[in-house]
Amino acid sequence: MSQGPLRVGLVSISDRASSGVYEDKGLPALRQWLDGVLLTPWEEESRLIADDQPGIEATLMELVDDEGCHLVLTTGGTGPAPRDVTPEATLAVADKVMPGFGEQMRQIGLQFVPTAILSRQVGVIRKQALILNLPGQPKSIQETLEGVKDGEGKVLVPGIFAAVPYCLDLIGGPYVETRESVVAAFRPKSARRPPAA
């Protein structure tokens, strides 16, 4: 089990944002969401890169192998357009594919738009890290991570982040705690620790 803070790699993948044509919204959205959900101390390594498969692969390997990230979240490049190659790059560096993450992301997206079926996000494990491809829009990022809630905040379709802390436990990452009002992390009773004081 890893000691010390959770290390998170944030990668925004966009030709136009990386070349300065418009402001990147992916990294600020990821940072703000993680600040709101994580009770565990965390450190960030962020990258803004172009839609280029060798470049994406190199960035993911750097964040996991050299920077020691436990969790890597990418945003952008998961659609069907010719330049959308984030899933291909992610699969190319994977030790294990975690298909449930992509299935659930599309299930969440379909609550909002029929075109969610066109998204190709994947989740994989490389060494000690979980790598997840998220959508490009801040609103979609939040919905994917938190899930679909009713007016009272009751979860109707679970978000993917509820499974992330236990996945990190299983691959030797740090013990991650969340604000239950945002995302209640699910663990079997045997894997739970008393809340940090």
Give a nutshell description of this structure:
This protein has 197 residues and is α/β, with parallel strands linked by helices. Helix content is 32%, strand content 20%.
Overall description:
- The protein has 197 residues and is an alpha/beta fold.
- The protein is 32% helix and 20% strand.
- The protein is built from seven helices and eight strands.
- A hairpin with a 2-residue loop joins β5 (123-126) and β6.
- The mean pLDDT is 93.
List the SSEs and their pairings.
Elements: E1 6-13, H1 15-18, H2 26-37, E2 42-49, H3 53-66, E3 71-75, H4 86-92, E4 96-97, H5 99-109, E5 123-126, E6 129-134, H6 138-146, E7 147-149, E8 155-158, H7 164-170
Parallel strand pairs: 1-2, 1-3, 3-6
Antiparallel strand pairs: 4-5, 5-6, 7-8
Helix pairs in contact: 3-4, 5-6
Poorly predicted spans: none
Rounded mean pLDDT is 93
Strand order of the largest sheet: 2-1-3-6-5-4
Shape: globular
Pattern of helices and strands: EHHEHEHEHEEHEEH
Write down the Rg.
16 Å
Overall SS class: alpha/beta
The largest sheet is:
6 strands, mixed
Task: Tell me the total number of β-strands.
Answer: 8
The end-to-end span amounts to 20 Å
Percent of residues in helical segments?
25-40%
- Strand-residue fraction? 15-25%
* Count of runs of 4 or more consecutive helical residues: 7
